[in-house]
Amino acid sequence: MSSAPPRFGANYTPSQGWFHHWLDFDLDEVRADLDSIAGLGLDHIRVFPLWPLFQPNRTLVRPRAVEQLVQLADAAAERGLDVNVDGLQGHLSSFDFLPAWTRTWHRRNIFTDPDVVAGQAEYLRTLAAALADRPNFIGMTVGNEIAQFAAAPHPDPDRITPAQAGSWLDRLLAACEEGAPGRMHLHAEYDASWYQDDQPFTPAHAARTGAVTAVHSWVFNGTAQRHGATATATEHHAAYLVELSKAWALEPHRPVWLQEVGAPAPHIPPEHAAAFTAATVANALDCPDLWGVTWWCSHDVSRSLADFPELEYTLGLLTNDRRVKPAGQAVARIAAQWRDREHRPAPRTCALVVDAGDEETAPRRSVCAPGGPVFEAFARLTADGARPTTVLASRADDTDHLAARGITEVVTPEQAGLPARPATRTAP
């Protein structure tokens, strides 16, 4: 079990032009943004190339765009910031960015068409190879929440099976490894992978594929609406996803990266954003095996840009003129408190049973969603003073598995629903 200090970072949203800044790349503006991020005491950023701009044709990855990405990474290094790069954008803040060679007259499935997948692999390999010799390069994330293209509620999904999703992930992660051997390459899906029964990207994919597990925590998914801005379930939602992921992990201490988390208004009122931020991060830090926390996002979106959902404009730790917001002050305080400090939370000895059906496909994973029995039981246990984790029903009697994770008692959702401290059974 690692005891390294937790990492603290931000998803880099350029203050000028949002991600469209790649069209008019200005290194001086980037440097100013990175100065403001480093000023918070953060140690890394997550960076988002726009796929259609970097690979406008299936056989063309633009050298100039790749050069600009390397310049950004080098500027980050000068400020003590490590860099993770998301390759396939993909989807950002309600907008889809897919190259023309996958749409309309060239419409083909981005997960299964052999030519498209070969093009994606070459693109990811090229980006990884360009950064492979940079000491501050963490590794590649295949793409940002790309699972959303594979099922509803996307208006035009590319339908696939879980087996096809797994094959696609294996192929693209191998391309990242080919480009930059030994780096921390991973994939990142939104919470539908944990909560939506028919999402082909499954909890098993998230918790078993790639170097670490990534979770993205957004309380506008029904959590804040159901429980309120200051409720236990809301302030512990990120911690819940971290611990939920461990039910499917094959390694007892697989690292988990809280790669996205934010304070979306009006679900989290602006005047409560700092308190929510502090509580969310503190609760996540009470999870063993947490690699780090990367806040969404670094800078607000400028009001000069149209058609974003209202909540997307105000998620930054800094304004789009680089002033630190209360949430940014909260993250800066936490980062300072944890600098060079070991992260060694006590084991979570109480495990909540998750029965989502077959563990590979999780056809009943909605039991884990807000309002579902696992979700609500986790919130009740936490409010009652417990520090729960989760275990699959198929492993609830596996003595070796429980011991490796430090679990000493197992609780069903029904037991957790009792009005007093739930009855438990001792782990075998």
Plain-language structure description:
The chain contains 15 helices and 14 strands. It is an alpha/beta fold and 428 residues long. The protein has 2 domains: 7-338, Glycosidases (TIM Barrel); 350-426, no CATH class. It has an 8-stranded parallel sheet with strand order 7-6-3-2-1-10-9-8. The chain has a 4-stranded mixed sheet with strand order 12-11-13-14. Strands 4-5 form a two-stranded antiparallel sheet. The two termini are 23 Å apart.
Please write out the topology:
Layout: E1 7-11, H1 27-38, E2 44-47, H2 51-54, H3 63-78, E3 82-88, E4 91-92, E5 95-96, H4 114-131, E6 137-144, H5 162-179, E7 186-188, H6 192-195, H7 203-208, E8 213-217, H8 223-227, H9 232-235, H10 237-248, E9 256-261, H11 273-285, E10 290-295, H12 326-338, E11 350-354, H13 373-383, E12 388-392, H14 399-405, E13 409-411, H15 413-416, E14 425-426
Parallel strand pairs: 1-2, 1-10, 2-3, 3-6, 6-7, 8-9, 9-10, 11-12, 11-13
Antiparallel strand pairs: 4-5, 13-14
Helix pairs in contact: 1-3, 3-4, 4-5, 10-11, 11-12
How much of the residues is beta strand, in percent?
5-15%
User: Under the CATH scheme, which class of the largest domain?
Assistant: Alpha Beta
The percent of residues in helical segments reads 25-40%
Low-confidence stretches: 420-425
Order of helices and strands: EHEHHEEEHEHEHHEHHHEHEHEHEHEHE
CATH topology of the largest domain: the name is TIM Barrel
Mean pLDDT: 96
Number of domains: 2
CATH architectural grouping of the largest domain: Alpha-Beta Barrel
Relevant CATH superfamily of the largest domain = Glycosidases
Number of strands: 14
Shape field: globular
| Number of distinct helices | 15
* Distance between the ends: 23 Å
Backbone structural class: alpha/beta
| Rg over C-alpha atoms, rounded to the nearest angstrom | 21 Å
Major beta sheet, strand line-up: 7-6-3-2-1-10-9-8
InterPro entries: GH (IPR017853)
Organism: Streptomyces pristinaespiralis (strain ATCC 25486 / DSM 40338 / CBS 914.69 / JCM 4507 / KCC S-0507 / NBRC 13074 / NRRL 2958 / 5647)
Protein name: Glycosyl hydrolase
